[in-house]
Specification:
The chain has about 750 residues and is an alpha+beta fold. It has a domain of about 350 residues: Transferase(Phosphotransferase), domain 1 (Orthogonal Bundle), CATH 1.10.510. It has 14 helices and 44 strands. It has a six-stranded antiparallel β-sheet with strand order 1-2-3-4-6-5. A four-stranded antiparallel β-sheet has the order 13-44-43-42, with no helix packed on it. Strands 14-15-16-17 form a four-stranded antiparallel β-sheet, with no helix packed on it. A hairpin with a 2-residue loop joins strand 31 and strand 32. Helix 4 runs antiparallel to helix 7 and helix 4 packs antiparallel against helix 10. The two termini are about 50 Å apart.
């Protein structure tokens, strides 16, 4: 189908006067798979109605494909996607806004400037972030499925049928095949496309928008698979990112969230100005709006008797009166330097094998999970929130050095403990408030007022102001001897420190009174083992978990780990257990988690168990468990408010578990695929009351609804930083309204609104 101007065009002979309750005014756009009409509803509101052409409507596989893509349009609700009014068998109704498709916009008015490219690319990447938890590969990006409007870009295609440039007739009883305008190296090699395939196509699309042509001189499968992309004409600031998007190896391409952050660190919406488009495009959009107003003024106030009599029953697709011809439309001519428009990506029918050009079965692109219920015109409220893009970044801070995890104080100041200095940032703006010569060896903890407490390498125990950074007082008794906090409760902290003879002790210290509450001898732990000593404060006892140092000859025959209960006020031992069993083992990254009531959650036989830490007796798990066989080798556990137990397993799934009996209430998949999760690859971090809790992996921070365990969104940071620090877990410093994310030992801090 040759490109033509967008905007309202006269209804063609054979077009219906109405579909359902909607009166058709004009044609807006056509593609290989569907015709889009401008229409009004009974109240006169303008809408867009998408109807499949006769061939998709008459082919069962293509009809199912249209329905699947319509469901995905509903599930993709959010920014940069037209709001769905109604989805029925045979049509999709969305809100109407004047817009011009990317293809004709570039063909008639030339390449887009860099600012518009950043808005366009970031917006499309944000939509992909929402789509990939729902579908393995989106496959709906094309110059005719991306619309440019005054209020920003919008994606209207949700699968290969929408993106198709042609539909080949069925042969020998086979189902019709789709021809796509874009190929990826993995598809040329005959492999099934995945999320990284959409990133490659996004790169192709942005190069086209930036230059008016594709990145390959000759758009053949061989060129896509082997040739280096030509980025001449692409703005210099975008070339490194687009080069990574077009990497031949899918594993090296950035994730969609990283593309979005690389193009617009504050989010696409933050870049959207009143006129983000060139003036000529804005003028055409204004003319389109005027043309629509003229159509309304011509007397289209509602369906006439004649119109009602000729309306199409949307539940019976494919009859002779459906719009368009019976033949597939011609594919668009390829632009200079060749978007691969006529080079076919052949998509087999449902259940057929992949074609030579890297095609895949239509059915494989269907949503992986049951699609949400489809909204109709009578439904109230917007579609349910789905896993999607994170909130727009408020600010980004690049530190001079690395350091310990940051602290949000009183929703006002971010305290960043760096190597050689501590920095205070305005939590609202990210501006530096103060920098002080305080070298922290742990994350500071609040005392009272604006007072914070921290062990340091250069001053001993220090209390300092969160608002000014000024040191109020110091306690040199523990200078250079502490290695961070093993636990905290109120004004009491616990840390390990040697006495004057070098004997390791567990110290309970009151940070308000600046005094030692008690000291108890504590055997050595392996050097450099972050999970080797942990303290869980209870009401009457302080529970201690310690991994034995193999070099300690005195303890070598006692066991691999020790569990102790110490009197809260005196530090006297109430009881102590040594264990050699697998369930008691505490490796560097813990596989056992203890709570204030003395419950120990452990990984036994690759599943989750709950035990009484004093007796070792099982509370639940083992043979008594029911659905817990799905919790494969727990990697992270968090008990929230004694009523919700969250568990991440080795498959990367997050489970909401009833801590009373181990029943699984909900299981959610990671918003960002992580593959198998090794110990130390993930953790669960509580946020303040009223804010999400966070799952932190090396790949992303995932916000989780603390009430029902739903995934809210995932944040992956900026491309360059993600590449620099791959393999390091993200960390979270959260207030009630703003959370700051940074990688462990990283230098980049990102603030996001969360409350």
């Amino acid at each position: 189908m040759a490109e033509r101007a967008d905007g309202p065009d006269s209804l063609a002979e054979g077009d219906p006067a109405g579909i359902g309750e909607y009166t058709l005014l004009a044609r807006l756009r056509e593609s290989a798979g569907a015709v889009e009409y401008l229409a009004v509803d009974r109240e006169g509101a303008k809408v867009s109605v998408l109807v499949p052409r006769p061939r998709p409507a008459g082919d069962p596989a293509l009809r199912r494909r249209f329905a699947a893509e319509a469901r995905l349009a509903v599930a993709a609700a959010g920014p940069w996607v037209p709001a769905v009014r109604e989805s029925a068998d045979g049509h999709l109704v969305t809100a109407y806004r004047p817009a011009l498709a990317l293809g004709p916009a570039v063909a008639r008015y030339g390449p887009l400037p860099e600012h518009a490219l950043r808005v366009l690319g970031a917006a499309l990447a944000e939509v992909l972030v929402r789509l990939h938890p729902l579908v393995e590969a989106h496959q709906g990006l094309a110059p005719h499925t991306v619309l440019l409007g005054a209020d920003g870009p919008r994606l209207t295609g949700f699968g290969p049928l929408a993106a198709a440039t042609g539909i080949d007739p069925a042969a020998d009883g086979a189902a019709a095949r789709l021809t796509l305008g874009f190929l990826t190296p993995e598809q040329v090699a005959g492999r099934v496309p995945g999320p990284a395939s959409d990133v490659f196509v996004l790169g192709l699309l942005l190069v086209y928008a930036a230059t008016g042509a594709g990145p390959f001189a000759v758009a053949t499968p061989d060129a896509v698979a082997t040739a280096d992309p030509d980025l001449d004409g692409v703005p210099e600031g975008l070339r490194p990112l687009l080069s990574r998007c077009l990497d031949k190896d899918p594993a090296r391409r950035p994730a969609p969230a990283a593309v979005a952050a690389g193009l617009a660190p504050g989010g696409a919406a933050a870049l959207l100005a009143a006129q983000w488009l060139p003036g000529a495009l804005v003028t055409e959009l204004s003319a389109q709006a005027s043309a629509v107003m003229a159509l309304e003024a011509a007397g289209h106030d509602g369906p006439s008797a004649t119109a009602v009599a000729t309306q199409v029953d949307a539940s019976t697709p494919g009859d002779a009166s459906a719009p368009g011809d019976a033949s597939a439309p011609d594919a668009p001519e390829p632009p200079r330097r060749g978007l691969p428009a006529r080079r076919a990506l052949i998509l087999g029918a449902v259940g057929t094998a992949a074609g030579l050009a890297g095609g895949f079965a239509l059915g494989r692109n269907a949503p992986r999970a049951p699609a949400p219920a489809v909204a109709t015109a009578a439904a109230s409220g917007p579609p349910a929130r789905v896993q999607g893009a994170p909130p727009a970044v408020l600010w980004h801070y690049r530190a001079a050095t690395t350091g310990k995890q940051a602290l949000v104080w009183n929703d006002q100041v971010l305290v960043v403990p760096l190597i050689g200095a501590t920095v205070g940032l305005d939590l609202r703006t990210g501006k530096t408030l103060w920098t002080k010569d305080i070298w922290c060896n742990a994350t500071p903890v609040p005392v009272s007022g604006d007072l914070l407490f921290v062990p340091t390498f250069n001053r001993g125990l220090v209390r300092f102001s969160a608002t000014t950074g000024t040191a109020r007082d110091t306690d040199p008794d523990y200078a250079m001897e502490t290695d961070g906090f093993a636990g905290q409760n109120g004004t009491r902290v616990w840390f390990r420190a040697p006495d004057k003879d070098g004997v390791p002790h567990l110290v309970c210290y009151d940070i308000a009174q600046r005094s030692t509450v008690w000291r108890t001898p504590m055997g050595r732990t392996p050097p450099g083992r972050g999970g080797a000593l942990r303290v869980t404060p209870g009401r009457e006892s302080v529970y201690v978990q310690r991994l034995r140092d193999p070099a300690d000859a005195k303890e070598k025959d006692l066991g691999t780990a020790v569990f102790s209960a110490l009197d809260t006020e005196t530090g006297a031992r109430r009881w102590e257990r040594w264990e050699k069993e697998a369930w008691a083992d505490l490796p560097e990254e813990p596989r056992s988690w203890m709570t204030a009531d003395g419950t120990l959650y452990t990984d036994e036989g690759h599943s989750l168990h709950a035990r009484d830490v004093k007796t070792g007796g099982e509370r639940w798990g083992g043979d008594a468990r029911t659905s817990l066989d799905r919790v494969s080798s727990p990697r992270g556990v968090l008990l929230r408010d004694d009523v919700s137990l969250f568990v991440v397993d080795a498959n990367g799934w997050t489970h909401l578990v009833d801590p009373r009996d181990g029943t699984i209430k909900r299981t959610t998949f990671p918003a960002v695929p992580t593959g198998a999760v090794a110990r130390g690859d993930t953790a669960l971090v509580p946020g303040p009351s009223g804010s999400p809790l966070y799952r932190v992996d090396w790949g992303a921070v995932t916000a989780i609804d603390p009430e029902d365990g739903r995934t809210l969104w995932a944040f992956q940071g900026v491309t360059e930083q993600q590449q620099e620090q791959e393999g390091l877990l993200w960390q979270v410093a959260s207030g009630t309204r703003t959370a700051v994310f940074a990688r462990r030992f990283g230098r980049d801090y990102f603030a996001l609104p969360v409350g």
